[in-house]
Amino acid sequence: MKKWLKISFSLLLISILIIPLAACGKDKVQNVRIGEVTRSIFYAPQYVAIAKGFFEEQGLNVTLTTTAGGDKTMTALLSDSIDVALVGSETSIYVSAQGSNDPVINFAQLTQTDGTFLVSRQKLENFTWDMLKGTTFLGQRKGGMPQMAGEFVLKKHGIDPHKDLELIQNVDFANIAPAFASGTGEFVQLFEPTASVFEKEGKGYIVASFGTESGHIPYTTFMTKQSYINENKETVEKFTRAIYKAQSWVENHSAKETAMVIKDFFDNTELDIIEMVVKRYKSQGSYSTDPILDQEEWDNLQNIMEEAGELPKRVDYKSLVNTEIAESVMKK
């Protein structure tokens, strides 16, 4: 009887100890709200991090919201509707120019080239950039990175986008593809998978890559307010660790394997299209293989902004870029 009482008492003690420990474990789970500027296969490593449970491994419960447009994404971040924004680095420069006392800091880079492609309404066997002269070109929203990179590439090939062609820039991001499909423009600048879907359906033909032409730039990065980093440094480090693991996974796995992992994020896109797009982005080096945004990329970004007449003023690299977190993650 005494032996049974001892066993019962021991079990009771164990249960008393386990319950608080389990509760503590739950308390350690940190919620992180991400706002992405658009839903795109261009962001494949982010979806891999979610689907493969890399955030969960770090004790993070991530919720993802698509906030169409850089301005809306930044508004969501500044108003604390989200914790982390996935958007072009140029937006952090725009916020800085407004004199914010809580700067938006780029802490982990996801893509390192432009993600758009030049799509022609007609099938062109031997495309050259001067074929755009005298045509109507449906471009991206003025002030955004796609538009600035697009104009940079046109000028690189001796085309004045405001004189040598009719440039349309007043169409909202979400309506650019439908506008082209309905007959507006002879050329259009599109993200994937829309460009490949159009090609498959015979609505247009990919003739060039703006990413290949514009060089390395911090096209899309994870950023947050300095105050959030100050108050949640460990969380930001865990977040970056999950992203870095996903970047390495995408780099070391085939386009088909990546497509299989992220397909649930693209319900209306066929698997073969997803695979083709991932392969295209990998082949042109669009996916960053690590989360570090380097000085050369930052300078190239500001050069492109300046060329487009959209740079408010030069911003010091270290004032809006934090590489310490990414470097720490990579060392470990």
From TrEMBL:
One Pfam family this sequence matches: NMT1_2
Domain of life the protein comes from: Bacteria
Keyword Phosphoprotein assigned: no
Subcellular location: Periplasm
Signal is among the record's keywords: yes
Gene3D superfamilies registered for this protein in UniProt: Periplasmic binding protein-like II
Keywords, ordered alphabetically: Signal
Chain segments annotated as transmembrane: none
Family note: Belongs to the bacterial solute-binding protein SsuA/TauA family.
Stated name of the protein: ABC transporter substrate-binding protein
Native organism: Cytobacillus depressus
Lineage: Bacteria, Bacillati, Bacillota, Bacilli, Bacillales
